[in-house]
Amino acid sequence: MKLEHTAVIGSELALAFDDGIEAYIPLLLLRRACPCAQCQGEPDALGRVVVPASTIGDRGCEVTGMETVGGYGLQIRWADGHSTGIYSYPLLRQLAAAAEN
């Protein structure tokens, strides 16, 4: 699976994959699902996942840029300066399916 095109359309991220699948993800859902350790937490020395308290700022759902990472993911830069999450293509498709329901 390869990502062929991305575009922000209103309050959604539109994605087109090489297998013909088109996906639309609300930006708020995308930001809340950021997979980075800062947002989702990371295991401590005992293996427990510690999730930090975080809030999304006023401009936290505005996309200022995007770039593909290798052949597997998309890195998004948000207007509040956050940019450490790399969204894998399977995760993006999972989020799009969740948004449809």
> SSE order, as H and E?
EEEHHEEEEEH
Strand content: 35-45%
Rg, alpha carbons: 14 Å
CATH topology group: NE0471 N-terminal domain-like
Largest sheet: 3 strands, antiparallel
Structural class: alpha+beta
Sum up the overall morphology in one term: globular
Separation, N- and C-terminal Cα atoms: 23 Å
**Domain module count:** 1
What is the total tally of β strands? 8
What is the tally of helical segments? 3
Q: Oligomeric state of the chains? A: single chain
CATH class: Alpha Beta
How are the strands ordered across the major sheet? Answer: 1-2-3
The helical percent reads 10-25%
Note the main attributes of this structure.
single chain, 101 residues, alpha+beta, NE0471 N-terminal domain-like, 3-stranded antiparallel β-sheet, iron, DUF971 family protein
Question: SSE layout and pairings?
Answer:
Elements: E1 3-9, E2 12-17, E3 22-26, H1 27-32, H2 37-40, E4 42-43, E5 49-50, E6 63-69, E7 73-78, E8 86-88, H3 89-100
InterPro entries: GBBH-like_N, GBBH-like_N_sf
Pfam families: GBBH-like_N
Protein name: DUF971 family protein
